[in-house]
Structures are given as C-alpha cells and as structure tokens.
Amino acid sequence: MPRFTWLGLDLGAGRYLSVWDAGGDGTSWLTELRPDGSHLITQARRTDRDGHWVLTVPSLDASLDITHRELFATQGAYTGACRVTGTLAGEDIAGHGFTDVIG
User: Fold this and answer.
1) Model confidence pLDDT, tens digit, residues 5-51
2) Phi-psi bin for 14: left (phi > 0), alpha (psi -120 to 50), beta?
3) 55: which strand partners?
4) For the chain, which terminal residue's Cβ has fewer other Cβ atoms within 10 angstroms, N or C?
5) Confidence (pTM)
6) Is the dihedral of CA 84, 8, 10, 63 positive or negative?
C-alpha cells in the first residue's frame, strides 16, 4: 500500500497550512490559508529527524519543527496530534494540528 501523509496545521493569527505527501518520500504540496482569506499552493519538503518532522517551505521562508503524538492507530493507519514551532517569513511561530499517515 502506498504511504500517504496529511498535516493540518494552525499557526495562529488566522494562518493555516494543509500539507499533502502522497508519494511517501517527503515531497509535499502545501496550501496556506491566509488571514485575509486568500490562499497559496506551493511545494514543501518534509524530512524525518529523530522522531519528528521538519517541514521546509522555501516560498514562505518557513522552517517548521513538527512533533507528533499518536492519538490512535489501526492497521495501516496512524492519527496524531502535532505541536509546531519554527519560523515563517522571518518570524517565530508556534502552533498545533493533526496528522494522518496511511500505509
């Protein structure tokens, strides 16, 4: 079964990210919902590092450290709560969200 990862992240101040990695290799597509209601679709890169993920988004000047904790799992699927810290457009940010990993 192919691996599929989704992240739904709330970065505060009306900033939301939805990240999709359908190939399982960390190459991701990201939709940013901005406080004014506009959105941007761009590429991102998710890498595993010591049990957490680092999400790099060059077009947003973002580097986000994402820790996740399992909420429940079934065979072939994982759902977790996420904590996010890092930088976005040169500013420190913190947030939270959820992840689903299939496969």
Assistant:
1) 999 999 999 999 999 998 778 899 999 999 999 999 999 999 988 88
2) left
3) 46, 64
4) N
5) 0.90
6) positive
- 3-state SS of the chain is CCCEEEEEEECCCCCEEEEEECCCCCEEEEEEECCCCCEEEEEEEEEEECCEEEEEEHHHCEEEEEEEEEEEEECCEEEEEEEEEEEECCEEEEEEEEEEEEC
Amino acid letter, residue 81: A
Please count the residues of the chain: 103
The C-alpha atoms of residue 54 and residue 66 are separated, in whole angstroms, by: 6
